[in-house]
Amino acid sequence: MPTVEWMGKTFNVDEDGFIDSYANWCPEWVQYVKSQEGIEELTEDHKKIIEVLRDYYEKNGIAPMVRVLSKVTGFKLKQIYELFPSGPGKGACKMAGLPKPTGCV
């Protein structure tokens, strides 16, 4: 399994760069993904999406569908893509420490 070193931490990642375990998520991981996504500053809107994704995952064991994420956060899909240029499935879920979504997120 590939590894990533960032801010003194080592993370195991899958072939798509998702962290190996939800339990290994930490602030340093968020900063790493932020740099990979080309996001200059994490706003409260970013943090809200991450929080919703993590909460939903903890309760359901999967990432929410996009329309659920949009409904819960109040953000339109366009806004989510503006916050996470690679999208809710790749960028947002990756930053939140979720496994790579298998369906339509």
Structure description:
The chain has 5 helices and 2 strands. Strands 1-2 form a two-stranded antiparallel sheet. It is 50% helix and 8% strand. It is mostly helical. It has a single domain, classed as Orthogonal Bundle (Arc Repressor Mutant, subunit A). Strand 1 and strand 2 (9-12) form a beta hairpin.
Chain-wise SSE layout:
Layout: E1 3-6, E2 9-12, H1 27-37, H2 44-60, H3 66-73, H4 77-83, H5 87-95
Antiparallel strand pairs: 1-2
Radius of gyration over C-alpha positions, nearest whole angstrom: 13 Å
The CATH architecture term is Orthogonal Bundle
Percent strand equals 5-15%
- Record the strand order, biggest sheet: 1-2
Biggest pleated sheet: 2 strands, antiparallel
CATH topology: Arc Repressor Mutant, subunit A
Give unreliable regions as ranges.
none
Residue-averaged pLDDT:
93
- CATH class division: Mainly Alpha
Structural class assignment: mainly alpha
Structural domain tally: 1
Give a count of the beta strands, DSSP E runs of length 2 or more. Answer: 2
Shape estimate = globular
What name goes with the CATH superfamily? DsrC protein, C-terminal domain
Taken in chain order, the helices and strands follow as EEHHHHH
How widely separated are the two ends? 25 Å
Helix share of residues?
Answer: 40-55%
Counting H and I runs of at least 4 residues, what is the number of helices?
5
